[in-house]
Amino acid sequence: MQTRAAVLTQFESDFYVGPMQLAEPAPGQLVVRTTAAPFCSTDWMGWRAMRRKQPPVVLGHTAVGVVEHVGSAVRGFAPGDRVVVAGTPECGECFYCGIGRPDQCSVLMDGSDPVVATLPDGRDVRAAGRVGAYSERMLVQAIQVHRLPDSLPDEVACLLGCGVSTALGAVFTIGEVQPGQSVAVVGLGHLGLWAVQAARLAGAGRIIGIDGHPGRRELAVSMGATDTVDSGSSDPVAAVQQLTEGRGADVVIEAAGPAIATRQAVMMARRAGTVVLAGVAHSATEVDLPQLQLTVHGKRILGCQNGQISPRTDMPRFISLLESGELDPSPFVTRTYALDEIDTVVRRSLALDDITGVLTP
Ligand SMILES: [Zn+2]
Ligand SMILES: [Zn+2]
User: Which InterPro entries does the UniProt entry name for this protein (predicted)?
Assistant: First the structure.
């Protein structure tokens, strides 16, 4: 099957945008025609060789679209179904799915990105995160596809598999934020801003947004932050302590990525507080932490992959929060782009000109 895609053939370079030949779908696979795909930090990190990607590769870690072809072994989908394609699969059969932790599904751990297509010159093309959303068509496993109601527009629905799942899961499921608690959010990009909204929904008393970018801090206030800290001009740890009677925040959500942000997140949580680490910098980044923070201070320091969500049960909840307007997606999609504009999307994302650019192949 022919498709047209934006293919990264060389790191930190312009994309090849043109035809490629999609592989023959396996019995457990679907072909989905892409209608919208977000471009977030995961994607520019892939572009910058920070994510062990292997060009030629189609980036784009999640998307919404319409099912075009259903493999012979796939049940529950038909051509014409509107779906969200998520980067994290849920096979329902492995050890981790069995213990209720599909965020660690063994299918996710099986190594490198699969080859899904060939270029006109014969080179194999991989799909980043088994998705490869910056393409008119995606060849994906049925276990990473979820049905979608018609209520949400494409540009909004495509955020479900991106910051929405990670941030809501970080606040509700992992951070277990309780009404009245103080929540500090380190980094106010796409992920951090969703975390601010989630903390507001959870009834947090004080929501402290931390970022060096004044526009992002302003946005955080419009979404429910009660206080902001300029990480460029002041020590965020001291600032958070000052706002929490010297103790530190009850829950800290780290949504920035650099090692220094991870360290600050741990330091600004109160004793016996909860730290949720959701940001990732380079795949090889290491973090130094004072041992006392990890032991005597009794902090709960928890990792966060895809918000630890169970897509089959959590996705419908998140959809209803967007439908009812309790979550406001309007500030997130700053611009939509055609596939041919992908080089512009990368540049604007790196310059922090977009919260989220959405490609509509
Ligand atoms: Zn599994
Ligand atoms: Zn994302």
Answer: ADH-like_C, ADH-like_N, ER, GroES-like_sf, NAD(P)-bd_dom_sf, Zn_alcohol_dh
